[in-house]
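Q: Two folds, back to back.
A: First:
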Amino acid sequence: MRPVWHIISSAILGIVIYFFTGSIIAGIIALLTGVFIDLDHLIDFWISAPKNPFSVKEFYHMDKYLKSKGDYYTIIFLHAFEWLIILAVLVVIYQNIYLVAIVLSILLHLTLDNFNLKKQDHPLSYSIIFRVLKKFKLA
């Protein structure tokens, strides 16, 4: 999904969280989490050895670097539903609004990304355990 949609959806979530909690910090955390979770794409980009590792233009043409990896999943270690389980347990233990904002933001981000899966993508593509067990290989 294009970053602009994650920015918009995370901003809306941040506003909703602020509206329900009165915490501007929790709203900002939701916005930042929903946007900056995509920084893990940088690792995959750099692994693919782009011509210019600091080129924003090259980075935004992800298809090019994904194809260079052949039939491998991207690592994107932050894009994993397992983090939600761990964080949800921490929310129950600590009952912290900031953790709730992080969980909701990651859930929204992964849900939106999940809607963008291609036909050939496995339904468990956003499971880090699945990707590790497959040794990041698609087939």
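A: Second:
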Amino acid sequence: MQLKYSYWWFKSAISPENCQKILDCGNAKIQQELETGNSIDAITFGDSQKQDAPEGSTALNETPLSEINENQKTYVRDSKAVWLNEDWIYDLIVPFVHEANKKAGWNWQTDYHEMLQFTRYDSPGGFYGWHKDGPSDWNGVSKRYIHGVTQDPLKPNGRLPSGYVQDENMIGKIRKISMTINLNEPGSYAGGNLKFDFGMHSDKQHRFHECEEIRPQGSVIVFPSFVDHCVTPVTSGTRYSLVMWTLGDPWK
């Protein structure tokens, strides 16, 4: 899909006060999960995260997945995450998705927003390798999981198999638009850069793009969920972000 704008951004759109409120909310949720014995390790669709990787596995920081042998012991994510569902946060950030969808000229049909992911990347080495947030076609629609009926079994940790959901609003939908917000004060972390890969058919000089626009606190980046992106390893400090995915019907 050829796009005039591959992403849209809003510089320092969320006030420092609201960034702090989100940080307080997310960190309180992290503490709550830890006190109840729940894991806060972030997961991936393919279960390729550090906590599930065999001993001696290699972190795939910026190596394309297509270049990795299936027999290699690797993982593509090392971060912590919890889920937020506060109405006031949605009220604050959803308008930016609608505005970006219009101003970037995408004008895609959307009708639902997933729960908010509050993510923490610790140093040294917290990262998220190259990935897409969703395939964005009919093969990637979310399917209903019915206990005792769906043939694919639950995973050993009790999670649903990839591609299945129990949220009625997500069934038959795909992720179309992704949003990420930088919650950090300036200079509070190093590394942890958001990077895009616009594909082998793009201008080679501009295929890989480091998104500097996200660095000011409260900056909002909105981009198509099918765009490859990564977060490079954090070298010092702690990187905090808020992520949201906006869903709609598959393209026809």
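Q: And?
A: The chain has a mean pLDDT of 92.
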